[in-house]
Amino acid sequence: NSVAPGLVMSTEASQRHWEERPAEERETILDTVALHRLGTVEDIANAVVFLVTEAGDWVQGQTILVDGGHWMF
Predict the structure, then answer these.
(1) Model-wide pTM > 0.85
(2) Could you identify which of 18, 26, 47, 68 might form a hypothetical disulfide with 35, taking C-beta atoms 3.0 to 4.6 angstroms apart as the criterion?
(3) Element (H, E) at 28
(4) What is the CA radius of gyration of the chain?
């Protein structure tokens, strides 16, 4: 199994890079995400925890997209 993260706000540098983008550009990016927000480290960790616990035992050979629904659009 693997986890494929979407845009994640994971470091101070990524936060600065995001904030440096024009507001219109940020809104355009968020419009491509069903949940209309960037991911967090915790969002990705939750998927990993699922896969390594008994709850994910029956999941085999999958790539789990953790992207807030970006690929839905």
Answers:
(1) yes
(2) 68
(3) helix 23-30
(4) 14
Sign, CA dihedral 67-19-31-34, equals: positive
Contact 33, 68 (CB under 8 A): yes
Asked whether 29 and 7 are in contact (CB, 8 A), the reply is: yes
Residues in the chain: 73
The strand pair at 63-66 and 39-40 is best described as: unpaired
Predicted confidence band of residue 1 (pLDDT cuts 50, 70, 90): very high
Using CA atoms, how far apart are residues 36 and 42, in angstroms rounded to an integer?
A: 17
Backbone angles phi and psi of 72, in degrees to 5: -70, -25
CA atoms of 58 and 73, how far apart (whole Å): 28
Mean pLDDT of the chain, nearest integer = 95
Residue 18's contacts (CB-CB under 8 Å, 6 or more residues apart) are 9, 26, 38
